[in-house]
């Protein structure tokens, strides 16, 4: 099997004479897969029920003759103007009641039966015509579901929301109980009285909001299934995917993953962002985890600049290469781009392509070509697993609920998760993500960052994990509410209280408006973690047996416990009542026995990573200066010093002596 290399190919934007050149150049750069037809609905069905497939037949034939496989899109991502004009009720409405119109893309309400019917019909035509085509190796359903329109507030969405609620609760009495509608006189006499949570005078019902988030994610998933099922009806074994967007808030990818044959992801780190590579690593770890370690596909990245940031930084060739290897090292079996040939018109004309405006003379083309020619060295890694020592719970419902307005502070779920991941990334320790309620197996540590919404069963599963000998680290606000958004009456941590040997007394979030105090308000000290700073959050604890590892030294709670540890049967449960700075996080993780693979000075700001996949170990330098990385690997007799060029990638087969260039490994 081969690493897939290629990108979105939009031949409909070009005259036919360019197609021959496209294919020749694709062959010259070892492109072996293209995603075809993502935005071609208007070209395929120029008016209702009138289809023009000739051009697609032609290009598929040419790609097939060149040995290039096709990830064929269902072409439903951007409805043609005739559909929106004839059926204006398919247009989405935002939370301020504004109808979003044509002229960009994704202008459809995910709940619209008319949109879904037309999308299904087009998919059926595509499947009947191309399902058996020798070039078609996989199907690409729609595109980045919810990227622009993940929540719709139109009348149809309101009707569909009511239907969804009725299916969930059966009786309106059950809904009233679950939503706590006796607060502010919100009791509903029938499902017909319920609306989508659009513009309101003030704070909305948190339980209603949480259900609306679930509903909206489910509606997007229903759109995916609307098309995926058509493909599978005819070709049950077809490879079917849709491109995810990393840590995307609009869709709970845990619930989507079982419906995809293979996970695929689009990733656009800002080349100017020094933390961009670490954030990309986190998305890649999530993608690998969504199907329990199964390899995934990097479906889109930019060859150089993107076009939708305030400042669209150039991505130097070596940086593009480093990010591409990162994806492979973290479980991708492909390196793909948006898009093959840079557009000359349209809203993304300044987003570079594999073949940019400057053509084959350009630096970025040469980088794309060089990479295409060297990736073959890693073909033997396809499907190889990426072992991880740490698992981290990631929970979309906690993300949604924690970031609603009616909460104890202005909290950022992703920030907390990201900072734990970053600490481990900096230590060279690979992380798997797991769902709340999963039974973690084979990890040295399980981290539960701010699992705000959790059921008793999910918290019990963590307790069982500890009692079975596991090591657990839980952070502030976990288990505060159940899955209906109701605050727990048995103490905010619920069943985890016993595991952790403490209870929460009172919340004491730190000030955000007084910038002098933010981030420096509370100083932590303690034998295990030394002193440092924390920010964002604090709370007073009632200790019921846990050891206090660190206290707040100043701020509003001097002397109050900040980090605790509790031995329970064969396991250990740690609690962190605040948001730690990066140095403290790393020290605490070391205190949990996680020996860093990357040995780094505390004040080092290097963005370098170590990650192993299958039999190969990678060291990747994401900085534009050369780095010497010190590695302390359990399987090496002594500490090693590895030199890595600016944006350099070195690797070796495990057990061989030296790190070298990618071409030097024998997989
Ligand atoms: C993705 C999308 C592509 C293209 C790309 C570059 O989000 O799937 O169609 O727009 O971004 O912006």
Key traits:
10-stranded mixed sheet; 27 strands; single chain; 667 residues; binds beta-D-galactopyranose
Structural overview:
This protein is an alpha/beta fold and 667 residues long. Strands 11-10-12-13-20-19-18-15-16-21 form a ten-stranded mixed β-sheet. Strands 5-4-3-2-1-9-8-7-6 form a nine-stranded parallel β-sheet, covered by helices on one side. The longest helix is centred in the first third of the chain and has 29 residues, at 206-234. Beta-D-galactopyranose binds next to loops.
What is the compact description of this entry?
With 667 residues, the chain is α/β, with parallel strands linked by helices. It contains 17 helices and 27 strands. It has a ten-stranded mixed sheet with strand order 11-10-12-13-20-19-18-15-16-21. Strands 5-4-3-2-1-9-8-7-6 form a nine-stranded parallel sheet, covered by helices on one side. A three-stranded antiparallel sheet has the order 22-25-26, with no helix packed on it.
CA-CA gap between termini: 13 Å
User: Major beta sheet, specifics?
Assistant: 10 strands, mixed
What are the distinct ligands in this entry?
beta-D-galactopyranose
Radius of gyration: 26 Å
Shape: globular
Helix content: 25-40%
Work out the strand percent.
Answer: 15-25%
Secondary structural class: alpha/beta
Low-confidence runs of at least 5 consecutive residues? 514-521
The total of beta strands comes to: 27
Mean pLDDT: 95
What is the tally of helical segments? 17
The largest sheet has its strands arranged as: 11-10-12-13-20-19-18-15-16-21
